[in-house]
Amino acid sequence: MKISGDKFPAALAKGLGHIYLVSGDEPLLVNEAADAIRARARGEGFAERDLHVTERGFDWQALLAESRSLSLFAQRKILEIRMPTAAPGDQGAKVIADLAADPSPDTLVLVTTPKLDGRTLNSRWVSAIDKHGTVVQIWPMELARLPAWIRERLRRHGLQADASAAALLAERVEGNLLAAHQEIEKLALLMPKGAVTTEAVIEAVADSARFDVLQLGEAAMKGQTVRALRILEGLRGEGFEPPLVLWALNKDLQWIARAQALMRNGQSADSAMNALYVWRPRQPAMKLALQRLSPRAVRGLLLDAANVDRAIKGVVRTNVWTEFEALVARFAGTALGRAA
């Protein structure tokens, strides 16, 4: 069965299939559809998840053998196949067709790819999924539909945008859904729940100083210790609240930790960041951090951030901004002494 992305949630609510193909050039929507499948599968007892990225030299026969095996604890599992291109080759096409035609009751197969062209849509492996499972086609968001999409996403954060405010945001992001996602997250952070007017959007977007808090993590990820500490001092001087500063640093650290986990499973840095919805302007700096920081170092930084949180809450008696200085410096690659 072929179905469009906007109709897929209703179809998924009716029941879970055994094999899905989600394709499209909108990473945000592709990942959200895949997330919905995973969530439904977990709710039906598919507790394990095996992720495979089909890069050059991928062993399709090993994947087929794994799909037929159960874990030591005989748990149902999600077998996820991420294809950077929609071209599995002859061997891959045969394996996917076999997975579709001869399903295991304890394995759910989820394949994600970029947009499929007409020739690929008629290929053997896609036709097999179409016959035995579900092909979810994610189409680009039409500009005319984007304001309504933005308003719905803002509502999820308790924000009610009027039509002109949503249109202004749609114009700002120029049809880029990942950019729209970024702007919505910024507004959710900066604004209280309630009405969002055009004037409020203009003020939030124009107030670039409010976004310096995001430049803090960017400088740290690039290893620019002096610049990062200068930004931190500026935020302090402008009266930024410590929880907001910590939120920005923590978000980058969490992204890095999750990206490293995906990279250990075979994904490239770029595909890992896209899977996690990392804002595109942020990706070059984060890529440098992924190259520089080990998983152990990131775990240490997250513990340091937790210590700053305790200082903010008054659990430990110390100077919060001194703790911030030590955290930011270590994030950038320079060891400063911890505050006494």
What order do the helices and strands come in, and which of them pair?
Layout: E1 2-4, H1 8-13, E2 19-24, H2 27-43, E3 46-53, H3 60-67, E4 76-82, H4 89-101, E5 107-113, H5 118-121, H6 124-132, E6 134-138, H7 146-156, E7 159-161, H8 163-173, H9 177-190, E8 194-196, H10 198-206, H11 212-221, H12 225-237, H13 242-264, H14 269-275, H15 283-292, H16 295-312, H17 320-332
Parallel strand pairs: 1-6, 2-5, 2-6, 3-4, 4-5, 7-8
Helix pairs in contact: 3-4, 4-6, 7-8, 8-9, 8-10, 11-12, 11-13, 11-15, 11-17, 12-17, 13-16, 16-17
CATH superfamily of the largest domain: P-loop containing nucleotide triphosphate hydrolases
Proportion in β-strands? 5-15%
Q: Using DSSP, what is the number of strands? A: 8
- Tally of distinct domains: 3
**CATH fold naming of the largest domain:** Rossmann fold
CATH class assignment of the largest domain: Alpha Beta
Secondary-structure-derived class: alpha/beta
- Helix percent reads 55-70%
Strand order, sheet with most strands = 1-6-2-5-4-3
**C-alpha Rg, in Å?**
23 Å
Summarize model confidence as the mean pLDDT.
88
Number of helices: 17
Report how far the terminal alpha carbons are from each other.
Answer: 63 Å
Low-pLDDT runs of 5+ residues are: 206-211
The main β sheet shows up as:
6 strands, parallel
Q: Tell me the overall shape.
A: globular
> Multimeric state of these chains?
single chain
> Can you tell me the CATH architecture of the largest domain?
3-Layer(aba) Sandwich
Order of helices and strands: EHEHEHEHEHHEHEHHEHHHHHHHH
